[in-house]
Design a protein that fits this description.
- The complex is a heterodimer of chains A (999) and B (109).
- With 999 residues, chain A is α+β, with helices and mostly antiparallel strands.
- Chain A folds into 6 domains: 148 residues, Ubiquitin-like (UB roll), CATH 3.10.20.440; 186 residues, 3-Layer(bba) Sandwich (FAD/NAD(P)-binding domain); 196 residues; 138 residues, Gyrase A, domain 2, CATH 3.30.1360; 89 residues, Alpha-Beta Plaits; 99 residues, Aminomethyltransferase beta-barrel domains (Elongation Factor Tu (Ef-tu), domain 3), CATH 2.40.30.
- In chain A, 23% of the residues lie in helices and 27% in strands.
- The longest helix of chain A has 16 residues.
- With 109 residues, chain B is α+β, with helices and mostly antiparallel strands.
- Chain B has one domain: Folate-binding superfamily (Folate-binding fold, 2-Layer Sandwich).
- Helix content of chain B is 16%, strand content 30%.
- Chain B is built from 2 helices and 6 strands.
- A 4-stranded antiparallel β-sheet of chain B has the order 3-4-5-6, with no helix packed on it. Chain B has a two-stranded antiparallel ribbon with strand order 1-2.
- The chains are: A alpha+beta (999), B alpha+beta (109).
């Protein structure tokens, strides 16, 4: 297979290492050192894809991150990767690639005919305008659009690779290892500072690798190699090629993606494929360079039309000339360099077409001396060809480049190298909120003012000449490192002519009638489209962007954006500085989700918290429920049981004998200090002044708006020592809340808070036989009903272990909680199970706990409350102290008019009319199911279960004015058309007098 | 990603260790029962939300568990200072100078 466009010598490729690859099923050859793009061009591949909207044939335009067309689908099966740019894919032997669109093939695409016929019917805002109605057809339209437009496909199988994340710190971070970045890193590195330098390419050097200039008499590429190896020798410098700094965040924090094995094969054979570096830098040097701008003219999207600088790069760096007969279209001196490079490669330069009337720089002279024809004061107004450019029409322009001043002439060619000026790569500088500013003398946006410790060097600041970039790099490196340098480089590139600021080449016809003049190739945005958007009233550049989709997509408008802004400005009779630019956001180039996830996937996504008894739960077949990060036993099914059968068995065991719950996850906060009691008075609704040591009390905690925030039982261990329990999910928030009030409002109170949730394991066992179980293991505490009453606390020895024993109940039955140090928890659980065996002690999980408490009408903060429920709304006024001296948190809000309304939603019991029904939780409550929609919504069901001991379904819910509606019937319309009914009742369904827990 | 100096730990730590807890220097009324609903409502719900200098509380949740104050620019995200509870900021927003008579006349002309 011949590489028709490969030059025999030169380039940074290794001809002794041929590599074969496939593109759209055909096999080609390239060399080690090629990118996929350079290898395709070497083989004369012209069409690499089809355009987004019009399905036009597209070829390779650039040579790096700016490439809008050559999006590839790489590899096969679960290894496939959508949308890398061929210009950034390093070739390896066996690489499989294909276009991301085009049907049935990119060479013959049916959609192109749709684009040709329908092109006029697809103006900007096409989707908004066309597919507005009827609304129910949108899904159908969308399917078709997605199929027609899609870029690439994902594998639905798990990613076979692993990824890493790493945190890094440095004194100086240099982004970009072109001339400016290398000079900066050398300067900073020599000072001894810790330096990180990254570059997205496979080797350092940037434009130096594709230049035939010299640096202080040394060939540019050689100078780059010397600089790279000097950096490599410095132990304080970390050099990272193949690493893209894609985001620059506040306080000099950067993220960089290192591609470790993408250049070796589809999957990493060892280690991780990619690594995400999270870098905190004291100083940042941005040396990100500039991207050449194309020019806007008719059919400027034809394959064979490329950026001039990219043509030079392919010739010098990759030894590939992507055409035989080339026309160079330029507005500045840099196009002449490309003409010289093409000629030196032995191909024909048909002409250099220069929009300037009197170009006279060093390179212009050199081109003329080499016999290249220069057409000054001319422009390429239109390209012609179907699958590739075959001709261009060149016409004379006026001085300003605004008008044609003569007839056109056709030049035959198969390559057009376009040099439309440069756009500094300002992307990273924008990420921290700095808006780029238009700089007239370099005809580009440069980074605006910033508060970051940021330095600019080289083309990003409009310093385009090599010597300028190197010298700026030295100074930026010195400034970042806090040193001084007088080093100056000589590259013999001083005399360069002024560039002309030209963006769109006029045509004989207006834009709306001329052949399509593309601005954004990836999104098929044309000059006519942008002009139309402006005429339709979109004047802000941000609006134009969103309306036309200019600058969207994976390339973020890296090539054409400025041209588009110039067209908007011209249409609105403004300057580019006035219309401004859109702002860039991370990521500079796409980042894989794999790298963002790193190792934080699967079981490592979030930590799982296990109680001390977890092994027992596992061994006994528990099903688990996530409560925050906790894994709590949900229920303990026995062989052949349905979940409901399990719950029925567990609940009946508690009601009839004894059952045991692992309550270790409840938040536990140890509160000590002489003012602990006063502090509790202030944060709880009820009074704590008289709670004696050895007693417990249930408390409600409110926010200042009077709404319930958390609840729990707090025990008085001594006058200066309390143990607070919180909901399992609310523990951290409650601790933060207590600290907040202590530290900010009441620092004079002497009180200390310590989380002891993990330090104590809790066995909660409930049922009429629970005392008998405990009595078997505990002999040093009088557990009799007279001696240890409901809500009492004792310290004692249980199964030989010093324990905290609470007689509290969340089930309504006689109930004890034994707290032991966590490392004894598993032992204590087993001892209690053994002791309870004769009573048929039954382990139960959170689901039975929910049923048992709901039978008693106990709320779960966060399930039955939602941040809009006061204690009165929950019919828990009994828990609010009326005569407390200090105005506790939330009390003042009870008298606010809205809080004091009597028709607020209140928590009530709901007894289904059909006793076999369990109303779905979340059901909306209405008074009249026959009312036309929208019905008056009265509230919703917060908790609902089957109660085996009562023999009917039970529920709780909030109902407007519910406490005055006892006995009324409410309805629950269901999504399936059923309407359920229930009677409003007290939420206490079981043992309303509380005889059981007082036994 | 903010980089925040904890005045208690006396170290710069990552934002991940902290949580933001709202505007600073909002004092709870001493006697809530004696104030109007409006004053109580202002205390509970109304915050200044400026563009620029803002004094706010941060909680070193995954560190020393202390609350402290920060003076932060809500536009640039620059943190000018952090200071302990009970202390006053040294960086404050420039107060809008009352227009002088001459300036007011100048506006009218």
């Amino acid at each position: 297979m011949s590489q028709v466009n490969r030059i025999a010598t030169g380039g940074r490729i290794d001809r002794s290492k041929p590599m074969s690859f496939t593109f759209n099923g055909k096999t080609f050859q390239g060399f080690d050192g090629d990118t996929l793009a350079s290898a395709m061009l070497a083989n004369g591949v012209g069409i690499v894809g089809r355009s987004f909207k019009y399905s036009r044939a597209r070829g390779i335009l650039g040579h790096g991150a700016e490439e809008p067309n050559a999006l590839m689908q790489l590899h096969k099966g679960n290894e496939t990767i959508p949308n890398p740019r061929a210009t950034q894919v390093e070739l390896f032997d066996g690489l499989i690639s294909s276009s991301t669109n085009g049907w049935p093939s990119v060479e013959f695409d049916l959609m192109e005919w749709v684009g040709k016929i329908g092109g006029k019917m697809m103006p900007p805002g096409f989707y908004y305008k066309t597919f507005m109605a009827p609304q129910n057809m949108w899904m159908t339209y969308e399917k078709f659009i997605r199929k027609a437009a899609g870029f690439g496909k994902l594998s639905l199988d798990p990613d076979p690779d692993t990824y890493d994340k790493v945190n890094v710190h440095c004194d100086v971070m240099v982004v970009g290892a072109g001339p400016a970045g290398l000079a900066a890193a050398l300067e900073a590195g020599r000072s001894g500072k810790r330096v990180i330098i990254v570059d997205e390419q496979n080797e350092f050097g940037g434009t130096l690798l594709a230049s035939n200039q010299t640096v202080d008499g040394v060939e540019a590429a050689t100078w780059a190699e010397q600089a790279t190896s000097e950096l490599a020798r410095m132990s304080n410098v970390t050099s990272m090629p193949r690493t893209t700094a894609f985001g620059y965040y506040d306080h000099n924090f950067l993220c960089a993606l290192e591609r470790r094995t993408d250049h070796l094969g589809p999957v990493a054979l060892t280690g991780t494929r990619q690594r995400l570096h999270r870098i905190r830098a004291h100083q940042v040097v941005l040396a990100t360079g500039a991207i050449e701008r194309p020019l806007v003219f008719g059919n400027n999207d034809l394959p064979g039309i490329m950026l001039a600088n990219s043509v030079s790069t392919y010739i010098i760096r990759y030894a590939v000339v992507p055409g035989q007969r080339c026309v160079v279209m330029t507005t500045n001196d840099s196009g002449y360099q490309t003409a010289l490079d093409i000629q030196a490669a032995g191909r024909t330069v048909v002409a250099v077409v220069d929009s300037r009337h009197a170009p006279d720089g060093r390179l212009v002279q050199a081109a003329k001396a080499a016999g290249i024809e220069v057409m000054a004061g001319h422009g390429v107004i239109e390209a012609q060809g179907s699958k590739r450019v075959t001709d261009v029409i060149v016409a004379p322009l006026d001085e300003a480049g605004d008008k044609l001043v003569g007839a056109g002439k056709t030049l035959s060619c198969d390559l057009v190298a376009v040099a439309g000026g440069w756009s500094p790569v300002v992307h990273l500088s924008c990420h921290t909120g700095s808006r780029p500013v238009w700089q007239e003398d370099v005809a580009g946006f440069v980074p605006g003012p910033t508060i970051q410790n940021q330095h600019l060097a080289g083309a990003i600041a409009g310093e385009y000449r090599l010597s300028q970039a190197l010298n700026a790099g030295v100074q930026a490196g010195a400034n970042a490192a806090g040193t001084q340098s007088t080093q100056v480089f000589d590259c013999g590139d001083e005399s360069e002519g002024a560039a002309q600021a030209l963006y769109i080449v006029p045509h004989t016809k207006p834009s709306s009638r001329a052949p399509k003049q593309f601005v954004d190739l990836q999104n098929d945005v044309t000059a006519a489209g942008i002009e139309l958007a402006a005429r339709e009233g979109f004047q802000s550049i941000e609006h134009v962007k969103r309306y036309t989709a200019m600058g969207f997509g994976t390339d973020q408008g890296k090539t054409g954006n400025v041209n588009g802004m110039a067209i908007v400005a011209k249409t609105l009779n403004k300057t580019i500085a006035e219309t401004g630019t859109t702002i860039f956001r991370p990521a500079y180039t796409p980042v894989t989700f794999g790298a963002m996830g790193g190792r934080d996937i699967g079981v490592l996504l979030d930590p799982a918290r296990h109680t001390a008894m977890h092994p027992w739960h596992l061994a006994n077949g528990a099903e688990f429920e996530n409560v925050g990060q906790w894994k709590r036993p949900w229920y303990f099914p026995q062989a052949g049981e349905t979940m409901q059968q399990t719950l029925n068995r567990e609940c009946l065991a508690v009601r009839n004998s004894v059952g045991m719950l692992d309550a270790s996850t409840l938040g536990k906060i140890d509160i000590q200090g002489k003012d602990a009691r006063e502090f509790l008075n202030r944060v709880y609704t009820n009074a704590w002044t008289k709670l004696a040591p050895g007693k417990c009390r249930y408390g409600l905690m409110l926010k200042e708006d009077g709404m319930i925030f958390d609840d729990g039982v707090t025990a008085c261990l001594s006058d200066t020592h309390f143990l607070m329990t919180t909901t399992s999910g609310g523990a951290a928030a409650v601790l933060g809340w207590l600290e907040l009030w202590h530290q900010t409002e009441w620092p004079e109170l002497e009180v200390y808070f310590t989380s002891v949730t993990d330090q104590w394991a809790t066995c909660s066992f409930a049922g009429p036989n629970s005392r008998k179980v405990l009595e078997k293991l505990c002999t040093d505490v009088d557990l009799s009903a007279q001696a240890m009453k409901f809500m009492d606390y004792r310290e004692g020895t249980v199964a030989g272990i010093k324990s905290r024993i609470f007689r509290i109940s969340f089930t309504g039955e006689l109930s004890f909680e034994v707290n032991v140090p966590a490392d004894q928890g598993h032992y204590m659980w087993k001892k209690l199970m053994e002791a309870g065996e004769e009573f048929g002690i039954t382990p139960y999980g959170t689901e039975s706990m929910h049923v048992l408490r709901a039978e008693k009408g106990f709320i779960i903060a966060g399930q039955d409350t939602d941040g809009s429920m006061t204690p009165y709304d929950c019919l828990m006024g009994w828990a609010v102290g009326k005569t407390k001296e200090f105005s506790f948190l939330g009390e003042r809000s009870f008298s606010r008019p809205d809080t004091a309304r009597t028709d607020r939603k209140q928590l009530v019991g709901l007894k289904p009319k059909d006793p076999t029904v369990v109303i779905p939780e979340g059901s909306q409550i209405v008074m009249d199911p026959n009312q036309p929609i929208p019905m008056d919504m009265m509230g919703h069901v917060t908790s609902s279960y089957w109660s085996e001991c009562l023999g009917h379904g039970i529920a709780m819910g909030t109902v407007k004015g519910g406490s005055d509606r006892m006995g009324q019937t409410v309805y629950f319309p269901q999504a399936d058309g059923r309407v359920l009914a229930a009677e409003i009742c007290s939420p206490v369904f079981y043992d309303p007098k509380g005889d059981h827990h007082n036994d | 990603m903010h980089h925040i100096y904890c005045p208690y730990c006396e170290e710069i730590r990552e934002e991940e260790e902290y949580s933001y807890t709202g505007e600073a220097h909002i004092e709870r009324p001493k006697d809530p029962a004696s104030i109007s609903d409006e004053v109580w409502g202002d205390y509970m719900f109304f915050r200044s939300n400026p563009r620029g200098i803002h004094h706010e509380m941060w909680y070193h949740a995954a560190g020393c568990r202390r609350y402290f104050n920060a003076t932060r620019d809500t536009h640039s995200y620059q943190i000018h200072e952090t200071y302990k509870m009970g202390e006053l900021p040294t960086v404050t927003a420039p107060t809008k100078a009352a227009p002088t008579k001459a300036a007011a006349q100048g506006d009218a002309s």
